[in-house]
Each structure stands twice: as C-alpha cells, then as structure tokens.
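[Solved] Which block belongs to which protein?

Original post:
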Amino acid sequence: MTPGTIDQLRIGHILNFVYLFREEAAAGRDEGVKERPVIVLDAHIPTNRVHVLAVTTKGDPLKGSVPIPHEVARACGLSLNSSVVVSEFNAFRWPGYDIRPLATGYIMGRLTPGFTAKIRALAANAEPVERD
C-alpha cells in the first residue's frame, strides 16, 4: 500500500474488521465486540459501498454459517475451524472506521474463487447491518 492511498478491494478479499452482529445492533451497540476476519461480499467502486461477511474462527459455527473447507482456510491463512456467516452482512463506505490496518495494508488474504462463488450464492438473501 502506498501512503495516502487505499487498497483496491475485490470480492473474496479477507479484511481485519470490527464486525457488528445483528443481535449486537439490536441490543443498542454501535460497534462490534472484537476484531475478526471478514470476507468482502460486494465492493461497489463508484460509490465505495462495501458489504462484508463475518468469519468465526473458534470452531463454534453460528446459526446461518457455512464451514470453510480446511484446504481453503489453509490457503488463505485462516484457522482450520473457521466458518462464514451468510445470513447477515455489514454494509459501510470504504474505507470505514471499523477496518483495522495490517502492516502490509488492509487485505489479509483472499478466498478461492470457487468458495467465494458458493458463499455469495448462499448470502443472496442475507440481511444488512448498516455501519454508516
């Protein structure tokens, strides 16, 4: 990443983000509890609107989540017990306040194209949690 610029996002990129779950927002929180990996579901470049899906990494899949195959998790640097929540997503304007930069920029890795297509199809009816 060059100083003064931001990374060009692509669908399937993995970011470090403070994700706000729907139940946290319903309880009155305006920020998530912790930093976690998220997957870029959609990135509309002209408007800088981004949709991200939460990744759980502790082996306790949440309702509405899909396990990430071990070979995919290994290839993109995620825990082998990771799952992607496909029932909801956070929507925000890039770059958002909840992005946590890394030493090399904002992008942690990227899912394989096949698994990215699978979770995008499964998340087609996901509910947004607006972050702006």
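(Second protein starts here: sequence line, then its structure tokens.)
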Amino acid sequence: MTIIKSNRESIGAPAEAIFNLLADYRNFNELLPEQVTNWKVSGDACSFTIKGMADISLKISQRLPNTQVIYSSLNASPFSFELVFNIEANSLSSFITCEFRGDLNPMLQMLAKAPLQNFVNMILDRLKFHFES
C-alpha cells in the first residue's frame, strides 16, 4: 500500500464548515486542478477525467462528522485508492490533512509519487483559498 500525506494545513474556518464542503461532491470540483474535465456528480459518487491521464470514479465511503471524510475509488478508476481527509478543530480555525492510500505497483509508485504529493497538497491549498479569500 502506497501512502502519501499532504502537509498539515491550518485553515481559518470551523471544522464543521470544512467537513460540510468535503462531505458533498457538488463542492469537490472547485478543489481539483484545471486539467479535470467531464465532471459528473450523482449523490455520493462522482467521476471525472484528468486530461492525458485517467478517468477517475469516486464515492464517499465514510463521514465522521466534523473530523473525517473518506473518498474511495470505484471500478472505473485505473487502480484502487482512497483519499482520507482528517480535520482537527482548533477554536476558530481547523487543521486538515489529506492522505492518499493506494494499491500501486512499484513502477507506478515511482512515476506517480511526486504528482500525487503535489495533488494532495494542491487540494488543501485550494481548500484554504476557498475559506480564506
């Protein structure tokens, strides 16, 4: 199992607001890079294409109110993985991390590690921008 952790980010928003945004896929596309196309949402599932890379399908597999949201890949994705968002309340702000957990073969892990590290950090940068701009 490949695990890639984001930086721990402080966001000037209550844990409940961050949780509510992450727990609803209708909001998730604003956190994704510009290379994402074909965005579709249906309840607790979404799908999209990363230009030149892959088609991804996700479902929200777990919601722990105000503390954790887990997205799990569906069969249409090229490999099995999860994105785990952990939220820690801290008075008027919150700390958040994003963790990629995936079943990558050694070759794919070597090729994908840096882009995935950038991806999990970028999601949190965009989340911070959403709440603090």
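Accepted answer:
You had them paired correctly. Confirming on the second one: Strands lie at 2-5, 9-11, 36-42, 45-50, 54-64, 68-73, 81-90, 93-102.
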